[in-house]
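Exercise 7 asks you to align residues with tokens for two separate proteins.
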Amino acid sequence: MARYGGFRAWFESLRHHLRLLGVSSIVWIVLIAGASALVMTGWEEAYPTQLEREALATQVEGNPAFEALFGRARGIDQAGGFALWRVGGVTTVLAAVWAMLAATRITRGEEDEGHAELLLAGAVRRTGLLSAAAVALAIAVAALWAATFGSLSAIEALSAEDAAIVAGANAACAAVFGALGLALAQVAPSRTHAVAAGAAVIVLALLVRVASGVEALEALEWTTPFGWVNLPAAEDGGWRLSVFWLFAPPAAALAAAAFAMRSRRELGGSVLRAGDEERAGVPMRSLPALAAREVTPGLLGWGIGAAAFTLLIGLLTGEVVRFVEASPGFVRLMEEVGFAGLDRPEGFVGLAMTFAVLIVALFAVTTVAGIRDDEASGRLEPILARPVSRWRWLAVRAAALNLLPIALLFFGIGLLAFAAVPRLTGMVAFGAVLVTFVFEFVGAFVDLPDVLLEAAPFHHFEPVPAADAAVGPALVMLAIGAAATLLAFPLFRGRDVEEA
């Protein structure tokens, strides 16, 4: 009977974790699956004949610029090969980010908010609680595969096997980085630190794939999950399914490490312990020092990643210029899909910077998520119990960012969500960035109305230095971001502190 009761308690814990994944994971999954289908629909319309698709493959395969940004291109004259390269090169990154965030949310996030303590008061043990979270995450990853498979199956040019393999790339990356999130939840002293570390690992893994675009470093493709995504496609248009086994060892090792660490640490503890003041729940001597401590882990992770990305782009520029000089047809092809100026070095740098600005925007909303964690975990209450006004606390946290236009825009949106609907802070902040970025990403392949494209913030990010900065849209983004930030202050001041 006790065993039955224990299983029943574990099953209720599983249901609890599935509810936690709920709406936000559905939004992510629909976004990833929908982006995949839209890109392939645009590819069918842009290249309706096999002759045109072979011409595209001739121009793209071996191009260091696009192989650095999207991974090595193989067999892209076939629908399956193109889908794996163009779709997998972007949506697998989104899948990795989602899985890492979800894993830390249902593990370390639950501990920070005090919910795990209530669950452990029942018949579920520490490793049982983690296993319920892991199973819930596995179910969500399976749902991601099913949704992507379903959306791609509707594309006439793709066979069921093609759709299954491309969907498998998304799911495989999600599994690896979801397991990473489970492990970091045991290592880090809070979810904020776990997310910062996970973001740094994702950026590093992406940078290794970018570096593999350099001919002398192409072997690096075998060292990162984002490189493995392109390996199943064979040069002749067939599939090498055995490559998918590369994803299994790191996912299994990270999950095993998470369980080993969870069985040895106390609730709320971590392998890497925070400073004495943080463990005691006492704020530091000044608000700027506290804000700096909270922002520094993410700033280091995202900053180092952004710097390394720009360095790699600089190293690749010479190869890109030599390739473009020998391939004038490629320049015309890219102009047709919205990438102009690639016949000049600054054109490629400008194109690459569209990915760098995504890093900046994600850092901004990660900082907002950290502000929400302060409240949800109870760390905010002892601060506000002292002679510290809400206006001053929120102002110091907001000023911790370098307020670039697009960063301020999304930071303001996230801060407004935190002040108005704190439970939805992460969903609104990350959703705003990723939805608008994917919208711009598919816009080059789908003939969307100009009025819709003009509404997307990333559409107004000009590829400087190939083009002049869009001063007008930048000022509008600054104004909207500043207005949203200022509106957050009275809303935050007027509501109760909400921990869960």
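Second protein for Exercise 7:
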Amino acid sequence: MGSSDKNIAAQTDISLVGEAVSSTTYDEVFLSTTSGYCIFDEHQNLQAFSSDFPLLYPTISDKIEIGMSYTAYMKVFYDNAAVRNMGKAETLDEWIKGAMTVFEQKGARHTHHLHDGRWMQINMSHTTTGHWLFVAMDITQYRDSQIALEEQHKRYRSFSHLAMDWFWELDRDLCFVYHSGHQSSLTGVDHEQLVGRSRIDVVTASVESSDALLCHNESLRRHEPFDLVLAWRNVDGSVRHVNVIGKPEFDKFGKFTGYLGCGREVTQEIQLQSKLNHLAQHDDLTGLVNRRAFESALSSILDQTAKRETQATLCFI
């Protein structure tokens, strides 16, 4: 291992275990594990590059020359559109000025979209010898997987928004850290202003008192899942019913970290069910209780009298 290699290892707290090998071996390993690299000296002039490095940029492969300055290199890079994602700049000077800021850092990372479709991650590091090392690593597979995952998440969010009206997330203190904004919140509070507020306090102030509300609050305190319907009061006195679902989250050690939840308004469904129940037990013409409802009520009363050993009277007019 050369002196420069030892200095780099010492700087990064990395040391070699075992017998050192020749620098040629290190060069071969480095060349075989990268997609290309180039080195600029302390004066920002191109000192060396691997033979496969120019192949990454076919439009400038015959223009890369040893000794050329980084400014000249980037000018060639810009004039020949070496990559697809060149970035935006009004003038060449402005673009080069932005590119030169890389030398103000000890390390940097850029992503190049090559014309053959591949994606390269360019890692720049400033060595202890004063050189600037640019290494290209092929991340095409990772990039494709990332894009596919983002598409899946986008599709999932679209389906979720079709199925649910609200999504929310709570921290371990049961306070909002997120509330979706694709539907207006029934709380009367803007979804962004809900962040940091207790869900129990917000819901209790907006929902009619009921067993469902008590179950909702107790489930949150006990870190238990819930799936129930709450009745929200509107300013005009009307009521909107919402199916609320909450799922507690825990880390790998079993420690409670918060909640993920969603809600969907079911007012129309409940009103329709109530109407159907009424029609099933009442005559359409007179609105009076029908035979089915009468027999159901009579059966219920007979059961009660039998269990409690009481009497009941049926009056027939």
